[in-house]
Design a protein that fits this description.
Blueprint: E1 2-6, E2 9-16, E3 22-23, E4 34-35, E5 38-39, H1 40-47, E6 51-52, E7 59-60, H2 63-68, H3 74-83, H4 86-100
Antiparallel strand pairs: 1-2, 2-3, 4-5, 6-7
Length: 106
């Protein structure tokens, strides 16, 4: 995950999740809420990066769990939950649960 770029500047209104998924129209107000020293969005972006331990060479890829669970949209959904107002999000969650028979993680 990374911010889109406009020239050399980061465009925080868009997050590129991978080659196929880009999250657009993220309001800058979404960056006002913080966990510790980072905004919630930046915290998620940092935690869900693929990393390799230098000494052992062990790769930590949080995306593998999503692949195993056949839930490739988990990380974009986490960001959407931060960006979307709670009242709207609750309506969408109820609608999503009704459409999927409650099988999607909440």
């Amino acid at each position: 995950m990374r911010f889109a770029k406009e020239g050399k500047e980061e465009n925080k209104s868009a997050i590129i999740y991978n080659d196929d998924i880009t999250l657009w129209n993220i309001p800058l107000e979404a960056y006002e809420s913080k966990l510790s020293t980072a905004t919630k969005i930046e915290w998620i972006m940092e935690r869900y990066q693929v990393t390799t331990h230098k000494e052992s060479g062990i790769v930590n890829d949080p995306n593998l769990w999503c692949d195993e669970q056949h839930n490739l949209a988990l990380h974009p959904r986490l960001i959407k939950r931060i960006v979307t107002p709670e009242a709207s999000r609750n309506h969408e969650d109820r609608q999503s649960t009704a459409e999927t028979g409650g099988c999607e993680p909440q």
